Every structure is written in C-alpha cells, then in structure tokens.
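Q: I have four molecules that I believe assemble together. Could you output structure tokens for the complex as a whole instead of separate predictions?
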Amino acid sequence: MSAATETTGWAEATIASLLARGHRNSGARRAVVELLGRQRCCLTAQEIFDQLRAGGRRVGIASVYRVLEQLSKDGYVQRIDIGAGTTRFEPIYAGGEHHHHHLVCDDCGKVEAFADDQLERALLQVEGRTGYSVAGHDVVLRGACRECAPRTRTSS
Amino acid sequence: MSAATETTGWAEATIASLLARGHRNSGARRAVVELLGRQRCCLTAQEIFDQLRAGGRRVGIASVYRVLEQLSKDGYVQRIDIGAGTTRFEPIYAGGEHHHHHLVCDDCGKVEAFADDQLERALLQVEGRTGYSVAGHDVVLRGACRECAPRTRTSS
DNA sequence: ATGCGTGCAAATGTTTTGCATTTTG
DNA sequence: CAAAATGCAAAACATTTGCACGCAT
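A: Yes, here they are, computed for all four components at once.
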C-alpha cells in the first residue's frame, strides 16, 4: 500500500500475498519469485530455470512453469510475447510502478524496456472505448537498434 | 498502386509482387495467399492448414509455414502474438490501409480488431524517441469481452 | 529439362501432464 | 499425518528441416 515498491519489495510482497491466500511457502516458488524480483527486465522460463540451477538450486523446469502460470494468473507477473516462440515473464509492481513496454531488435534480438506517459494515456482512452473490461495491455515496438540500424539490409 | 486496396486486391497484388520478384506461381503459396486475402482477422498456421484441407486442397503444414515465413519476411503479412502459444498471421495492406490492433478476451479467447488514430499518433511519437529504427508495432489489449465481463471471476 | 516449390515424415524446441516423493503446516 | 508442491520423465503441441518428387517455367 505504501509508495515503497522497491525492487526487493515486490518479491516480499508477492510471497506475503501468496501466504495470505493460503499457499505454502516452499522451495521452488520462493526461489522463482526471489529471482524475478531481482531482475530488471523480462526472462524466459528457461532462463529462470538455468539461473536457479546455476545458483545451486535443484528445481525442475516444470515447477518453474507451474509457478509462473500461477503468478501470472493471480496478477503478480506479466507474460510478454516478444514473438520468438518463447514467452517471457516479468514482475508487475503494485500501483503500476515501473510499468513499461518493450522494444525488440529484429536483427540482434535484444530486448529493451521503455515507458511513455502519453502512450499510456492514449491506451487508457482506447481501452475505455472498446466495450471490454480491459485488464492489461502489451505494446511491442520492433525494428533495428542503434547498433544494428546502420547496417540493416532491406531485403533477403 | 491505386487506392483500390480491396479485400480481394491484397491477394492479387501480393501474388503479382511475388511473380515480379521471380517467384513461381504455384499451388500452395497461391492457396495460402488467397485464403488470407479472404479473411477479416488474424489466423494461425493451423487454421489456415485446416481451412485449405477442408476446401479439398492437398497442402502440407510445412508449406503453410514456409509461405507464411516468406510473406512475413517480405512484408506482406504481419505476425501477431496474442500470447496463446501460437503465432497468428494477417495481411498487411498497402499504404497502411486497415491498420489495426487486437483485443483479446482472456475468458473466451475471442480476438477482435480495433483501430485508433490517437493511439497511432502516440506510437509514432514514442517510436521517434527510441533511437531505434522502428519497423512496426504491436498492441494487444487483454480483458473480458462484453459477454464475459458480467460474470468474470476475480480469482481462481 | 531444370530447378523451385511442395508434401510427407522426422527432428527440434517449448510447454504441459502424470506420478511418486518430499516438504510444509 | 494430510495436503500441497516438487522433480523427473514422458506427453502434447508448435514449428522447422531433410528429402524425394512434381509442376511451372
């Protein structure tokens, strides 16, 4: 409720919410949540799995998917479909803090985050006109990044 | 070249462009292009495959993917990642005609199109600020549609 | 006839499911 | 101790690739 939605705060708040909902506080889930809370941008399930393993934690990739599915369904993480065949995940901060969208380089595959208030306002307005009860939105800009742009080939 | 970018026109123009590029005018590709040209909104590769088969055409799903890959690479169709694990495809009309984005019902899975000029303007502005050479963008609004919204359950 | 484009089948990669076992409350 | 979570392996999907053959040019 406070304005103190720190990078670390998300993981703690999420674990607390899960406990409050009657879930147990055990290994894999906590590990995934804490890892996500430490990240700056979106990760794939495989990346999460690899990092946990690299950190010595013995988890199954199925658990990673199960935790992500649950967190996503309950609104703690957002699924991001950059379009490379794998879904990415990132924390959703309370109060819309750190809300952002993504910029993908078609050439080198790099993913960056960006935020823009005017874009958010435009989205909010459209959302009101749709007739849907809009729960969230996703914006992906695709193109060539600063390094790749100069030598982008147009065809083939 | 004319302003006559009709629903039918896209398929014809696309086939013509392909011929001009030295490609052959043969079975599967033509079938996929014509089917896409007849559709109102985005389709999955599987849906395209099924519809072609249902229409008596003997195509392989690999060809469908190959054609879609080529059309997408050459800028004739757009890949859409709604986020359900499968990519969708739809025609890109010349001159940005019929440019739109998508509205997805989390409950029943329905996908609708919407367009909004102000949103496009906001996107254009952000795109200029990114430092990327932005080639395209994707916006997906997720929520509950008119039929599903009234009985949406908040949790589990 | 030449070779691009195709269909089929097998390979690849991602995500999900079944089940026995461990862990938490 | 009972129920929830987990890890592993297998299954289910989505997409890509290898290859021999057929069809436009």
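A: One point stands out. Residues 24-27, 44-46, 61-62, 65-66, 69, 85-87 of chain A lie near DNA strand C (CB under 10 Å from a C1').
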